[in-house]
Write a structure and sequence with these properties.
This protein has helices at residues 15-25, 72-83, 109-113, 119-128, 134-140; strands at 8-11, 30-34, 38-43, 46-52, 64-69, 87-88, 93-95, 101-106. The protein has 142 residues and is α/β, with parallel strands linked by helices. A 4-stranded mixed β-sheet has the order 1-4-3-2, with helices on one face. It has a 4-stranded mixed β-sheet with strand order 5-8-7-6, with helices on one face. Strand 3 and strand 4 form a beta hairpin. Helix 4 (119-128) runs antiparallel to helix 5 (134-140). The chain is elongated and about 55 Å long.
C-alpha cells in the first residue's frame, strides 16, 4: 500500500516502543521501516510515521486517529486496550498511554445520524457516553 499523504507523530524518543505497543493492540499492524530517527508503521491500512523528536512537543486533542468498528467486540477491544494505561473521554474519544487521542466509533454512526428526525435522539446518547454501545445508538434511532 502506498499512501501519498500520511500522519507523522512526534514522539519522545520512543517511536519503536510506540510501534510495538500499537502492534500489540492492532493484530494486523506491521512495521514498514525503522531508522534511528523514524519508525513507519501501518495500522488498519493507514501508514503512520513515528518521529523520535524528543520531549519538546506533546500530543493534543487537536489531532486524533479515528477507528471505525463494525462490531461491539471491535469497539470493546480497541477502547479497552487503548484506555488500559490511558484515559477515557467523551463521545468515543480516548487517549492511549502516550497521550495520542483516538476516536473509537461504530461504522454505522453516519447512517444513524443521517435521518434528521432521529439524529437528535442519537446525538443525545452520544453526548452522554464515553465508550460507544452500538445497541444503545441503534435503539435511540428507532
Amino acid at each position: 500500500m502506498k499512501n501519498k499523504i500520511y500522519p507523522c507523530l512526534w514522539c519522545n524518543n520512543n517511536a519503536k516502543e510506540m510501534a510495538d505497543y500499537y502492534q500489540s493492540i492492532f493484530s494486523e499492524a506491521k512495521i514498514l521501516g525503522e531508522t534511528p530517527l523514524v519508525v513507519s508503521i501501518e495500522i488498519l491500512g493507514q501508514k503512520i510515521m513515528l518521529l523520535n523528536g524528543g520531549d519538546m512537543y506533546k500530543p493534543s486533542e487537536a489531532f486524533s486517529l479515528v477507528v471505525e468498528c463494525d462490531t461491539q467486540e471491535e469497539i470493546d477491544h480497541y477502547w479497552d486496550s487503548l484506555t488500559k494505561e490511558g484515559q477515557e473521554s467523551q463521545c468515543g474519544w480516548c487517549k492511549d498511554k502516550y497521550g495520542l487521542s483516538w476516536q473509537i466509533v461504530p461504522s454505522i454512526l453516519g447512517s444513524l445520524m443521517s435521518d434528521p428526525a432521529k439524529a437528535p435522539k442519537v446525538m443525545e446518547v452520544i453526548m452522554k457516553t464515553k465508550k460507544f454501545s452500538i445497541e444503545e445508538l441503534v435503539s435511540a434511532s428507532k
